[in-house]
Amino acid sequence: MKRIIAVDYGTKRVGLAVTDPLQIIAGPLDTVHAKDVIEYLKKYCAQNPTESFVVGMPVRLDNTATNNTSHVRGFVRILQRTFPDIPVFTTDERFTSVIASQAMLDGGLGKKARANKATVDMVSAVIILQSFMQQRSLFAKYQQQDENTETNTL
To answer: Which domain covers residue 102, as residue numbers?
Structure first.
C-alpha cells in the first residue's frame, strides 16, 4: 500500500506526518521551513509511494476562515499542481496544537521540549493524520452498513 502524508502548514514551519505502508499507524515525519516543503515532499514521494495528502485547514469555531486559511488554500493549490496524480484532502485542524501540547505533556516531555514549536507542528500533523484516518474508517464502516441495508431491503 501507499502512504498518506499529513501537513500542518504554517507560513514559517510545516509539520509533516506519515502513515506506515499498511496505513495502520500515523507517525511524525519532520518539520521543515515553509519555503522548502515542496522540494522536501518531491524527494520524499520519489522514494515512498504516496496515496494522498491531507492538509489541516484552519477555521474558527463558527466555521469562518482565519488569517491563515488563505495561506493554506494557496499551499493546497500548489500541492495539487505539483502532484497532479496524488489527491489532496483537507480536514479541520481546530485545536490540534492544543491537543499536541497536551499529548506531549501526557507523554512526559519536559517544558523545554513542549515549547519547541517545530515539535508541536510535527505532533499536530500526526493528530491531523490520525483524525483523517478515523474519519475515513468511519465513513467506510457506514458506507458498508448502508450497502448491507440496501441489499437486505425488499
So the answer is: 3-152
Which residues on neighbouring strands pair with residue 30, listed in sequence order?
Answer: 16
Threshold 0.85, pTM exceeds: no
Q: How many CB atoms lie within 10 A of CB 45?
A: 18
| Residues 24-66 pLDDT 10s | 999 999 999 999 999 999 999 999 999 999 999 998 888 888 8
What residue type is 123 in one-letter code? V
108-151 tens-digit pLDDT: 666 666 566 777 788 889 999 998 998 887 666 666 666 665 54
Gap between the Cα atoms of 101 and 114, Å rounded: 6
Q: What is the CATH number of the domain that holds 130?
A: 3.30.420.140
